[in-house]
Write a sequence for this structure.
């Protein structure tokens, strides 16, 4: 590992608080982060800069948790993906209150067959996020950062020839994912498109601005609510340890409650009270700070936290999903165990068995809570995806002019509710403010429109 390796720079920043090391790291990665953000926010340069700033703020804040990683590219890319998606959601919600639109009609969705950059761009990031982590890292390091195979092999610990094979296989998988979305291409053409188009040079001075903003924001964190958040993250990111501690507590309370003398009963009651108080505290923290682990400024969600959302795990595609054994369900178990135990401990006939009975009752309550969270998550996810997929063919009104080859905004009505979205035209023509258009397709969060006539 060279002295200027990305991971080494991050460790220098953590151990020495070296701002120069952090600034150098940001300068290396600013192009990757900014370009990914720019693609995913539809070409909005200001929003892309805001997303990039939030990602590097998260990097500075979570630097201590990332020092064991051998490479940072995948973490930064995934963090940018979630930050950009959340920024678009926040933008939509702000604009929703101001928009008006008309009822809509259906049209035929045009086919996409040619793998040119304009067609690859809106589908690229979603396809990359569908790759396994090892393949995603290989694609990003080789085709986005142009790293030699020798360097890739050193960072991934697999050797130069293995790095070459992994990059080629990963590119072929990416080509297959794009083919499923209608983008057909050879591996050579796709590699050329990625190498020449995927990374845009950031604006002059952006890297310095991002580094300065991240360092300033990171320095301001650590007091007040930050202490609670830190405690919550220790709880959230050590679920195995927390579960073992809960099991030990249950055993201790059960043993103490089985003793017949009054002193042992008091000890058991104290253990139950501690469980109830600590469990209730972390249950409240999980509700208040459940999304904070991924949040940058302005509520931008960086879902690429080291261990993910408090209740959101990461599956094969690194997209969030509900995790049944998470901090909220563990906190529910500990709280219920303490509460039930305190009640049973006061019973003359049941205090001997208060530990096992409290454990069984707490497991049942935690299972119900976990099942309820899973149902709500699946319903919310399915409802959102279904609503967006049904917009094809609807009529919309341009509320921000769409420039030729650029991105504007449209407003539309669906099921009696008003919505707005970023949009570009299918043929690259411009539409003025107030023009009536028709939605032809939706790719990710990007809407495509054509003339309504």
């Amino acid at each position: 590992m060279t002295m200027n390796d990305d991971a080494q720079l991050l460790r220098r920043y953590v151990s020495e608080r070296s701002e120069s090391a952090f600034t150098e790291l940001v300068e290396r990665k600013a192009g990757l982060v900014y370009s990914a953000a720019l693609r995913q926010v539809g070409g909005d340069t200001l929003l892309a800069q805001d997303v990039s700033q939030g990602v590097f703020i998260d990097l500075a804040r979570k630097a201590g948790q990332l020092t064991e990683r051998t490479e940072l590219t995948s973490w930064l890319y995934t963090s940018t993906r979630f930050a950009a998606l959340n920024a678009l959601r926040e933008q939509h919600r702000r604009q929703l209150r101001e928009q008006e639109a008309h009822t809509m009609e259906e049209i035929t969705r045009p086919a996409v067959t040619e793998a040119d950059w304009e067609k690859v761009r809106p589908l690229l990031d979603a396809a990359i996020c569908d790759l396994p982590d090892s393949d995603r890292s290989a694609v990003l390091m080789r085709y986005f950062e142009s790293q030699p195979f020798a360097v890739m092999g050193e960072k991934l610990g697999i050797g130069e020839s293995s790095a070459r094979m992994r990059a080629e296989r990963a590119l072929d998988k990416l080509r297959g994912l794009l083919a499923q979305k209608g983008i057909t291409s050879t591996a050579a053409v796709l590699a050329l498109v990625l190498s020449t188009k995927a990374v845009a040079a950031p604006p002059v001075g952006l890297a310095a601005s991002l580094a300065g903003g991240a360092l300033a924001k990171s320095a301001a964190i650590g007091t007040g609510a930050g202490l609670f958040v830190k405690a919550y993250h220790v709880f959230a990111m050590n679920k195995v340890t927390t579960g073992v501690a809960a099991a030990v507590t249950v055993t201790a309370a059960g043993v103490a409650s089985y003793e017949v003398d009054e002193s042992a009963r008091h000890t058991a009651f104290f253990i139950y009270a501690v469980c109830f108080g600590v469990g209730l505290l972390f249950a409240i923290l999980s509700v208040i700070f459940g999304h904070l682990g991924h949040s940058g400024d302005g509520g931008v969600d960086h879902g690429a936290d080291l261990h993910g959302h408090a209740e959101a795990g990461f599956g094969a595609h690194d997209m969030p999903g509900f995790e049944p054994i998470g901090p909220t369900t563990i906190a529910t178990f500990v709280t219920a165990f303490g509460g039930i135990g305190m009640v049973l401990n006061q019973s003359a006939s049941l205090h001997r068995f208060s530990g096992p009975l409290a454990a069984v009752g707490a497991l049942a309550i935690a299972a119900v809570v976990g099942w309820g969270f899973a149902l709500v998550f699946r319903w919310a996810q399915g409802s959102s995806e279904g609503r967006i997929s049904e917009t094809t063919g609807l009529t919309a009104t341009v509320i921000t002019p769409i420039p030729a080859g650029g991105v504007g905004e449209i407003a539309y009505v669906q099921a009696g509710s008003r919505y707005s979205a970023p949009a570009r035209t299918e043929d690259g023509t411009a539409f003025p403010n107030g023009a009536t258009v028709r939605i032809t397709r939706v790719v990710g969060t990007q809407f495509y429109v054509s003339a309504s006539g």
